[in-house]
Amino acid sequence: MTLKDELSAIAGEAFAAEGLDAGLGAVKAADRPDLAQFQCNGALAAAKAAKKNPREIAGAVADRLSARPEFSEVTVAGPGFINLKLTPDFLAARIDALGADGRFGGWEKETPEKIVIDYGGPNVAKPLHVGHLRAGIIGESLKRIMRFAGDDVTGDVHLGDWGLQMGQLISELELRQPDLVYFDPQAEGPFPEEPPISLSDLEEMYPAASAACKDDPARADLARKATKALQAGRPGYVALWRHFVTLSVNAMKKDYADLEVEFDLWKGEADADPLIPELTEDLKKRGVLEESDGAEIIRVAREDDNKEMPPIIFLNSEGAVGYHATDIATIVDRKRALDPDRILYVVDARQRLHFEQVFRAVAKAGYFDEARLEHLWFGTMNGKDGKPFKTRAGGTLKLRDLIETVTDKARERLEENGFAEGYGEAETREVARQVGVAALKFADLSNPRTSDYIFDLDRFMAFEGKTGPYLLYASVRVRSVIAKAKTAGAGEAGPAMLAAPEEVDLALVLLGFADALRDAYAKRLPHLLCDHAFTLAQTFSKFYAACRIVDEGDAKLRASRLALASAVGGQLDLILSLLGFSAPERM
Ligand code: ARG
């Protein structure tokens, strides 16, 4: 139970004792923290329903609450708000429990679910665009949050490995090196294990091929034919396609690892392809698939639609499998392999229509409950010109380059702060990567998921303010206080005793973690956790400025403050890990 739940239950009992609905007891953080810690506005709603004076109801409920041991102060304010303050003893007991629960007060779900999160979504051989970056960052955080809350979560990268771009690449290589064994229509394999080209060849070939296809219909036709032959299983093409995927995936794995994004499954659109013939039959049987101009389509418009809802093209008139069909087949594949309760898609806002169509189609076919498919869309990371972020040269973002950029920038900052002295090159680089990645990820996650934001590396990288580096710095500082206490022989952490207002404030923030985590979980909004982490770091700072820890003379007070500090350190590091990054040993 979170602290707010517990207080709401207590207030609810008081309302019930007055013959009113216990639900009126809902307690929230005080609007005026200078006057109270929590408040309950239930008397206003109760008065409306009962046509009574709200202050009278509030007074009666407040009298009951005053009689309870949890509160040091219960007052009625304004038209009938009940303001609450908890006793230091009550808070101290909760802090002791938080220190002992092994979760630093983190909320836990009552009934865990099995969840698949589809995020990342990079395309083989194509450079990443900023949408893929945000998908990776937000998806990773949601995965970690849900896993911590108790869900059984599988993260799947869902590679874009099955589209026309694969045919464009194959035909490009065929034009350049027609003598390769892969292009012999008779060849059955086995084919060489080593790829015939390198990753940089692949990266050069992709834009060349796609430009050529754009300019020349005959060239585009070659690509289409190659795609069709690949999808039909021509052995040489399939072998080549495998090489392309492997080259690309090996590079992506390294980039994602540096970004601290980890997938459980490296499946892709191609993995759904074998299901297509069977699904085509089944969808026809269910009367969901219709023929239209030689294509197989699914109508997904509904009567109450007040928006444009075009039908899905499941197979086009050439029989090629498109993006909708692979997503539908992937849902069926996931159901068979994992039988999840829910599938979440962390994919940018531009694909809202796509997912709405897909979800409707699988619901229509009876394959999956629409309410358990969620498109967790997000806004765009823009450049300072307000348009989707591009590199300085105007190109699409490469994840590798972005990681280099943030690492270099972090290193500059660290060196300005005198970090590099005394540390080896390898450690300096690794700390710089950690700080750079934290800056980038926190900047992304601290914006509400659905908002756009502007990429501003200087702001992201600041060591002061609501930034990743500030939080890392706070974490390092808390740990250094605890380490200092050890070397100074300041004793162990002990039961909490809250005297100074800064201690009470810190305890309240620590105890607010469960609510923040639950909200972030329920709304799928990691920024709520970012807000909590920032408040925690700031409140710790004030506490640290006001209260002696290591050199506090009173042993009991010292032990209590050490307990508070280690709760802060543990909770902060836990949140950083839920956001998808970690603090270095020192910085
Ligand atoms: N590869 C796609 C793209 O680049 C994103 C994939 C998102 N996931 C999905 N199941 N459709 O746009």
From TrEMBL:
Family: Belongs to the class-I aminoacyl-tRNA synthetase family.
GO terms classed as biological process: arginyl-tRNA aminoacylation
Organism of provenance: Hyphococcus luteus
Gene Ontology MF, one: ATP binding
InterPro entries: aa-tRNA-synth_I_CS, Arg-tRNA-ligase, Arg-tRNA-synth_N, Arg-tRNA-synth_N_sf, ArgRS_core, DALR_anticod-bd, Rossmann-like_a/b/a_fold, tRNAsynth_Ia_anticodon-bd
Gene this protein is translated from: argS
Domain DALR anticodon binding: 471-587
Its EC number(s): 6.1.1.19
PANTHER family: ARGININE--TRNA LIGASE, CYTOPLASMIC, ARGINYL-TRNA SYNTHETASE
Residue positions of motif 'HIGH' region: 122-132
Annotated Arginyl tRNA synthetase N-terminal domain residues: 1-86
Protein name: Arginine--tRNA ligase
Quaternary structure and interacting proteins, as annotated: Monomer.
